[in-house]
């Protein structure tokens, strides 16, 4: 019993340590602007300026930034999944020439990060005349998250016995029916992991968006947020208000799938 | 199922022992139908930039972006002549090694904690997930603000505890800035890593632990003798992914110090970025990118060798 109390104490301290920076974000977002230059800084706002969360929408086109981030992340996720599912399913179910080469390619591309390739990506987008477009961001996010998704889904599909599908097929479900009614529901944790992983990685992507986009109405949140604090202005309260607006939905999404996530990661690491 | 179908079709059309050429070609092409979209996406968006990058590193490109021609190894020679290069590379190795080592050590403990039973465990897991869900850039910005010279929380707390006499401008001194940024990198790497460890812990059957208890093994012996060896796949995966991520981590340094003062807190990625987009030295930056990639490859291979990966692959 004492063991559990000690564990709970340590656990709650750890939770606090992880939340502290975001708590600080929240507190800063609620400070009036003149208090931000006070030295030394204040622990709590002298005046809880809730209006910051309303004013920020008119201080900058936050809604546009959000729309850009959301479009890029959502479309990239759909594209990634549409490409990854057939590839993962086919390689899990069939032996064919080139299968090994394909899986090796997937493994190797997992080692490439957009950061390392940003110059190549930029020059390619210039060549394709795709700079400053959402399409370029969608393509990059979809492609760089694809290997991880194929890998996770491949692990899941392989772990489902073929006999299960065949039984459904013989019962008259058809090949597509067997896939949608048997295989997909069982591999749901893997699919959810892949979706969330891609969505969050795209939502948070920074370096390519920083390099490729230029117009204010094509900038995602990550690129737009730092411009609240420049040489000429220091609206830290708006910067963090916008950050929280961007973070909270994703955290809720994450909490929602936390249980799936552990299963998804197990499949990925064991396979 | 597959044989049944093709068999039936074959019997209906011809008695030939071998399928006709078009059909064989068709069968060879079926994989392309399933793998095609993935192959196309990977080739166009991942492999093309790789080739483009290598080509860039061999080209002579003016500061206004016009390609004049090829200059062979010239960009690489220029790069290796940079005074800043050696310190930047050494700093990058220290950055990767330090962050991954600390992250792994803390994650092993954290995974154990998240796996133990105590009231409120779910809420603690949710809290640990937050830095993973938040963008690294935003997390770096809040740390930058907390470390602010005048109004930052860190200075305020240290002043109130009388640990310092006057505010310290943490991010202006390279050594202090480096340590703080490494801490932020550990902070954002912990959630993913500890969840992989947690997932690994949950694959260990409880019978193994019971057997150890029956044999009279203490907690430390059980951990070293049973838990750690069984966690090996999870530890391997987590550290490789961390090495790649930390090596490529750009937003933390970019947001907190911009690699400055001078090049004093640059790693290879920020060094490369400044070279291309600030100094307009695209060819040399391409060379840096290639060197950077080779460095990652060498580090991962060395790690795999040290961890005797082959045994894992079987």
From TrEMBL, chain A:
Bilayer-crossing regions: 68-90, 102-122, 134-157, 178-200, 236-257
Main location: membrane
Residues annotated as domain ABC transmembrane type-1: 66-257
One BP term from GO: transmembrane transport
Location of this chain's protein in the cell: Cell membrane
The keyword Transport is annotated on this UniProt entry: yes
SUPFAM superfamilies per record: MetI-like
Keyword Cell membrane: yes
PROSITE patterns membership: ABC_TM1
CDD domains in the record: TM_PBP2
Keywords from the UniProt entry: Cell membrane, Membrane, Transmembrane, Transmembrane helix, Transport
Topological type in the membrane: Multi-pass membrane protein
GO cellular component: plasma membrane
Family: Belongs to the binding-protein-dependent transport system permease family.
Protein name: Carbohydrate ABC transporter permease
Protein source organism: Actinomadura soli
């Amino acid at each position: 019993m004492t063991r559990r109390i000690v564990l709970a104490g340590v656990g709650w301290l750890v939770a606090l340590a992880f939340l502290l920076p975001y708590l600080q974000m929240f507190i800063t977002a609620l400070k009036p602007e003149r208090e931000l230059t006070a030295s030394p800084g204040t622990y709590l706002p002298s005046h809880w300026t809730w209006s910051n969360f309303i004013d920020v929408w008119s201080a900058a086109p936050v809604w546009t930034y959000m729309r850009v981030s959301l479009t890029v992340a959502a479309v990239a996720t759909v594209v990634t999944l549409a490409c990854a599912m057939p590839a993962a399913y086919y390689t899990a179910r069939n032996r064919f020439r080139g299968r090994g080469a394909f899986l090796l390619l997937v493994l190797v591309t997992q080692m490439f990060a957009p950061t390392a390739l940003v110059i190549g990506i930029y020059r390619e987008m210039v060549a394709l005349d795709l700079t400053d477009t959402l399409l370029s961001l969608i393509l990059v996010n979809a492609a760089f998250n694809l290997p991880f998704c194929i890998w996770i889904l491949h692990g899941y599909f392989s772990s489902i016995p073929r006999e299960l599908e065949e039984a459904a097929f013989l019962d008259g479900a058809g090949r597509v029916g067997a896939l949608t009614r048997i295989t997909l529901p069982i591999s749901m944790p893997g699919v959810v992991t892949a979706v969330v992983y891609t969505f969050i990685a795209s939502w948070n992507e920074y370096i390519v968006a920083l390099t490729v986009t230029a117009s204010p109405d094509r900038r995602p949140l990550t690129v737009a947020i730092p411009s609240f604090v420049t040489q000429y202005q220091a609206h830290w309260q708006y910067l963090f208000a916008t950050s929280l607006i961007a973070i909270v939905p994703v955290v809720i999404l994450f909490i929602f799938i936390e249980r799936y996530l552990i299963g998804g990661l197990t499949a990925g690491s064991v396979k | 199922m597959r044989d049944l179908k093709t068999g039936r079709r074959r019997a209906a059309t011809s008695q030939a022992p071998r399928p006709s050429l078009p059909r064989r070609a068709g069968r060879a092409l079926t994989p392309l139908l399933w793998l095609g979209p993935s192959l196309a996406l990977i080739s166009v968006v991942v492999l093309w930039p790789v080739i483009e990058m290598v080509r860039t590193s061999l080209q002579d490109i003016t500061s206004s972006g016009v390609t004049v021609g090829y200059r062979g190894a010239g960009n690489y020679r220029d790069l290796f002549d940079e005074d800043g290069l050696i310190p930047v590379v050494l700093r990058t190795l220290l950055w990767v090694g330090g962050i991954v080592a600390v992250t792994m050590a803390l994650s092993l403990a954290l995974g154990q904690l998240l796996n133990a039973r105590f009231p409120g465990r779910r809420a603690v897991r949710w809290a640990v997930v937050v830095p993973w869900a938040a963008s690294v850039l935003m997390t770096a910005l809040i740390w930058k603000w907390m470390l602010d010279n005048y109004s930052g929380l860190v200075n305020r707390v240290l002043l109130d505890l009388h640990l310092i006499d006057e505010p310290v401008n943490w991010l202006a001194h390279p050594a202090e800035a480096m340590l703080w940024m490494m801490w932020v990198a550990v902070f954002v790497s912990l959630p993913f890593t500890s969840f992989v460890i947690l997932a690994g812990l949950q694959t260990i059957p409880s019978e193994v632990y019971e057997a150890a208890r029956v044999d009279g093994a203490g907690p430390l012996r059980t951990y070293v003798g049973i838990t750690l060896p069984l966690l090996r796949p999870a530890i391997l995966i987590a550290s490789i992914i961390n090495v790649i991520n930390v090596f490529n981590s750009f937003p933390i340094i970019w947001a907190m110090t911009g690699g400055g003062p001078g090049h004093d807190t640059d790693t290879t990625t920020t060094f490369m970025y400044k070279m291309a987009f600030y100094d307009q030295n695209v060819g040399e930056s391409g060379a840096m990118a290639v060197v950077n990639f080779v460095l990652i490859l060498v580090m991962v291979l060395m790690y795999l060798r040290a961890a005797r990966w082959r045994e894992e692959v079987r």
